[in-house]
Amino acid sequence: MDGELFPRERTVIAPGAVHVPDWLGAVRQRELLAACRTWARPPAGLRTVRTPGGGTMTARQVCLGLHWYPYAYARTAVDGDGTPVKPMPGWLADLGREAVAAAYGEPPGPEVVYDIALINFYDGDSRMGMHRDAEERSGAPVVSLSLGDTCVFRFGNTASRGRPYQDVRLRSGDLFVFGKASRLAYHGVPKVLPGTGPQELGLTGRLNITLRVGGLG
Ligand SMILES: O=C(O)CCC(=O)C(=O)O
Ligand SMILES: [Fe+2]
Q1: Where is Fe cation bound in this sequence (predicted)?
Q2: Cys-Cys crosslink for 24: which of 28, 74, 96, 203, Cβ 3.0 to 4.6 Å?
Q3: ipTM value of the model?
C-alpha cells in the first residue's frame, strides 16, 4: 500500500488484542469517510468533549446508537445540542462482526450486536490520554477502524495506565480489535503524524471509529 517491501502482518499485541493492517481497502475507506462526514453534521454532530475536571478532550467526537459522555451513555447529546443521537446503521454493525471474524479467525456469537459507534476526529495536536473503555456492560470486543493520518496507538495493560505497553502505528484502513483478556486494557493515542494519510482519501487529520456493544438494554 505504501510501497513497503513486505506487507505488514496481522499481529497479536496482547491476549485478545489484534492488529490487522490494511483491513479496509481504498473504496471502503472512502465510503466510511463519506459517512463520517454526514454523521459529523448537526444535529447531534461533532462536539468538543469536556471532562469533569474542567479540561477538554483534544479529539472531537460524534456518536451513533448511544451518546457517550464522561463517563456514561445517554440517548441524546446531553453535553452537545441535546438532540437525539443518530442511529447505528445496520451495515456498520455488520462491519463490526466482520472485523471480529478477521481479527480472531472466527465470527463472534449471535449475541454480539454492535449498537454503538464513537467517532473521534484528530487534527492539529490532538491526542488521547490512557483510558479504558469501561462504560459498556457487555464484554464483547471493541472494534477500532482508522482513517487518514497514521497515529501512535499505545496499548497497555488492565492494571494501570503505565508500563507495560506497546506502541503500534495505526494507518488508514487498519483494524485493531481488543476483547477477551484485553477488553479492559488501558490504551491511548500519544501522537498523530500529520500529513501521513493517503493523499487520494482527501482527509486532513485522522478519524477513528470504535464499534462497541453496549449491553445497556
Ligand atoms: O483513536 C483511537 O485510536 C482510540 C480511540 C479510543 O480509544 C476511544 O474512542 O475510546
Ligand atoms: Fe478507548
Answers
A1: 131, 133, 187
A2: 28
A3: 0.99
